[in-house]
Design goal:
The complex is a heterodimer of chains A (about 110) and B (about 110).
Chain A lengths: L3 E3 L3 E4 L5 E7 L5 E8 L3 E8 L6 E2 L7 E6 L2 E6 L8 E8 L8 E2 L3 E5 L1
Chain B lengths: L1 E5 L3 E5 L4 E3 L1 E5 L3 E8 L5 E7 L5 E3 L5 E5 L4 E6 L8 E9 L7 E2 L3 E6 L1
The chains are: A mainly beta (about 110), B mainly beta (about 110).
């Protein structure tokens, strides 16, 4: 079974803090994704990566950056957290760019106060 | 670019009743279509997908969906729901040239009452 894990289920940070969200997959997948999920808006793609050290902006990259130094790990960084970044963050992975199925982690609920 | 509209934000039904969750999409290119389910406090998992061929697609847990190209729809159905089907359901689309990039709908919360 593919396993995608996220470092925290719940996280509370203060405005202005630098926040790291970590995601690890154990199936040697090339593609990894970061989404945020908000009620009534569904999932929106923040960034994705199709190879180590490669990244592409999704639909809402502003205020976020990412890092992929190893194939199995994809980090989402909030350089200076703001209250409008309070959300559920979901990581996903897929075998390659043609793959039809994305495997999701359990999510990190981030609250910025 | 693609977009997805899920026409109902919440659908309440009684156990053993049939259910249909509606999804319409917009795209300038040919697409692949997906339904994902999210149970409380969990990530998303794939229910079913349409890639090509037969327009009626069967998925896990007794769900099925029908691709209608002329109406640009991909509605999800189940003939008899269970309490355990209570979850949020997401329709998603991917352009055939948009490698790996999914666009999701807003989600439909299905609540099954006893």
């Amino acid at each position: 079974d593919v396993k995608v894990t996220q470092s925290s289920r719940y996280l509370v940070k203060r405005t202005g803090e630098k926040v790291f969200l970590e995601c690890v997959q154990d199936m040697d997948h090339e593609n990894m994704f970061w989404y945020r999920q908000d009620p009534g808006l569904g999932l929106r793609l923040i960034y994705f990566s199709y190879d180590v050290k490669m990244k592409e902006k999704g639909d809402i990259p502003e205020g976020y950056s990412v890092s992929r130094e190893k194939k199995e790990r994809f980090s989402l960084i909030l350089e200076s957290a703001s209250t409008n970044q309070t959300s559920m963050y979901l990581c996903a992975s897929a075998f390659d760019r043609v793959a039809y199925e994305q495997y999701f982690g359990p999510g990190t609920r981030l609250t910025v106060t | 670019a693609q977009s997805v509209t899920q026409l109902d934000s919440q659908v309440p039904v009684f156990e053993e009743a049939p259910v249909e969750l509606r999804c319409n999409y917009s795209s300038s290119v040919s697409v692949y279509l997906f339904w994902y389910v999210q149970y409380p406090n969990q990530g998303l998992q794939l229910l079913l997908k349409y890639l090509s061929g037969s327009t009626l697609v069967k998925g896990i847990n007794g769900f099925e969906a029908e691709f209608n190209k002329s109406q640009t729809s991909f509605h999800l159905r189940k003939p008899s729901v269970h309490i355990s089907d209570t979850a949020e359901y997401f329709c998603a689309v991917r352009g055939k040239t948009s490698y790996g990039k999914l666009t999701f709908g807003q989600g439909t919360i299905l609540t099954v009452h006893p």
